[in-house]
Amino acid sequence: MAVYNARAALPGGGPAAWGEPVRIAYDRRDILLYAVGINSRDLRFIFEGHKDFAVFPTFPIRWGGAGAVVDRAAIPPSPGPLTIDAERYLEVVRPLPLGGEVSVVSRLIGVHPRGKGAGFVEYESEVRNAEGQVCVKMVSGSFRRGVERLGDIEPFEGAGTTFSAPVTVPDRAPDVETGAHIPENQADIYRLSGDYNPLHIDPEAARFGGFDKPILHGLCTFGHCAHLLLSTLCDGDPARFRRIKVRFSSPVLPGDDLKVLAWRDGPGRVIFEARVGDRTVVSHAWFEYA
Ligand SMILES: C/C=C/C(=O)SCCNC(=O)CCNC(=O)[C@H](O)C(C)(C)COP(=O)(O)OP(=O)(O)OC[C@H]1O[C@@H](n2cnc3c(N)ncnc32)[C@H](O)[C@@H]1OP(=O)(O)O
């Protein structure tokens, strides 16, 4: 089993069974950098000397899919920027330690044709602590542009299943409204957590990907939504975080004002959307808390 550092690029590749565990080492600096990358000003997440210093619950999201075996026959590769982060789910089973080594296992759970010449690919992942206990469960969905025909998929347990369920927001005013300004340099900071895709910093790479300028990492938007909801609904207490699911519907840009609108949907559960102006940027989303 290879040892990878949290800052290094994650490996990929392989079939639809659980992949080999990937060991990931991280320390307090990684925890702090992630929290600053989603623009947290909460000392519990950005000051290691705070009495309640904690890992922000969505910290491991970038490890989604780590170690999954990619069957190239089932999912033809699509060129770099044409792979788009489309949906994410994260569930905290128990808190991650404040540093050390964890392992991540992932497997392909679904490959679906979707929309105009795109494939929608979903991976499931589990993060386990040094004792082998599951701390976090995740599902990562991405759009593969230009993959018009998905390959012949060998049948496997769970093939064709999807975690991608539609969510309709109620036809009434939201119960909760919150938001944040995304600083112009937010993507510059977020990428230091290890997501160095040039789409988020290099204007030329952004143009190649079909954008006028570098866009914010979807996972940075994800972290902002989680932080805003945890702050507003749970006084920022990470122990109350349970699960979150989002769909990235439209890109967010550094400098944007992000608004999160949430509707209560039973005890400890909200349905939410994020918007920039009138444009919905996160949809089909929900958050559960204690
Ligand atoms: C490596 C990348 C890193 C990043 O961080 S990129 C930044 C984060 N991601 C984004 O900003 C993505 C923003 N989302 C989009 O730009 C668009 O959204 C998509 C390009 C992903 C899709 O747009 P379109 O091709 O125009 O698709 P459609 O015609 O709107 O919908 C076709 C079908 O696809 C479903 N769908 C649309 N968006 C998503 C999504 N994000 N995740 C999962 N499914 C999606 C719809 O419902 C529909 O489905 P049905 O054909 O069954 O009606």
From TrEMBL:
GO terms for molecular function: (3S)-3-hydroxyacyl-CoA dehydrogenase (NAD+) activity; 17-beta-hydroxysteroid dehydrogenase (NAD+) activity; enoyl-CoA hydratase activity. One of its GO terms (biological process) is fatty acid beta-oxidation. Residues 169-282 form the MaoC-like domain. It comes from the Bacteria. It holds the Pfam family MFE-2_hydrat-2_N. InterPro entries: HotDog_dom_sf (IPR029069), MaoC-like_dom (IPR002539), MFE-2_N (IPR054357). Residues 25-146 form the Peroxisomal multifunctional enzyme type 2-like N-terminal domain. This is Enoyl-CoA hydratase. It comes from Phenylobacterium parvum.
